């Protein structure tokens, strides 16, 4: 088989869609015709996507002075939140950011817990707020 010829044909015939869509038989599809319902994605593909998502979030977060001044453990808390609520969503935690700017991590943790996000994610918010408060990860 001529892999390059096949790839060229499939790129042309399937077309590239970077967001999920329903194909002609109603299957959720993405990319060059990947049937997500029947095939899904592999662990390697999921890991690749996660790494790309982390890199994208980190590019955004590095534009925030308060983030850049934090220790790596607290940066990780904010990256986790950014991954969950998006950069814009995270920037909406104004009282948390103000507390971080003052290095008042107990107040930042309280602000994390006093949010719609915390009510939605439950134990995730409890764990992350405790790490923000203490700067330590319980392993």
Which helices and strands appear, and what pairs or packs with what?
Elements: H1 3-14, E1 17-22, E2 28-31, E3 34-35, H2 43-61, H3 65-68, H4 72-91, H5 94-101, H6 105-113, H7 116-121, H8 123-134
Antiparallel strand pairs: 1-2, 2-3
Helix pairs in contact: 2-4, 4-8, 5-6, 6-8
Describe this structure as you would to a colleague.
A 3-stranded antiparallel beta sheet has the order 1-2-3, with no helix packed on it. The longest helix is centred in the middle third of the chain and has 20 residues, at 72-91. With 139 residues, the chain is mainly alpha-helical. Helices cover 65% and strands 9% of the residues. The model has no long low-confidence stretch (mean pLDDT 96). The protein is elongated and about 60 Å long. The protein is built from 8 helices and 3 strands; from the N terminus they run αβββααααααα. Helix 2 packs across helix 4 (72-91), helix 4 (72-91) crosses helix 8 and helix 6 (105-113) packs antiparallel against helix 8. It has a domain at 62-134: Lysozyme (Orthogonal Bundle), CATH 1.10.530.40. It has helices at residues 3-14, 43-61, 65-68, 72-91, 94-101, 105-113, 116-121, 123-134; strands at residues 17-22, 28-31, 34-35.
Short description:
The protein is mainly alpha-helical and 139 residues long. Helices cover 65% and strands 9% of the residues.
Q: Tags for this entry?
A:
139 residues, mainly alpha, Lysozyme, three-stranded antiparallel beta sheet, 8 helices
């Amino acid at each position: 088989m001529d892999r390059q010829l096949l790839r060229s044909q499939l790129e042309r015939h399937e077309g590239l869609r970077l967001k999920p869509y329903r194909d002609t038989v109603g299957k959720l599809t993405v990319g060059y015709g990947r049937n997500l319902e029947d095939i899904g994605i592999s662990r390697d593909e999921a890991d690749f996507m996660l790494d790309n998502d982390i890199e994208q979030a980190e590019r955004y977060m590095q534009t925030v002075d308060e983030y850049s001044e934090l220790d790596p453990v607290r940066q990780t808390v904010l990256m986790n939140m950014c991954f969950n609520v998006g950069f814009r969503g995270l920037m909406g935690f104004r009282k948390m950011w103000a507390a971080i700017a003052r290095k008042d991590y107990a107040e930042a943790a309280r602000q994390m817990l006093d949010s719609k996000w915390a009510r939605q994610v439950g134990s995730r918010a409890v764990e992350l707020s405790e790490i923000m408060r203490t700067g330590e990860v319980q392993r």
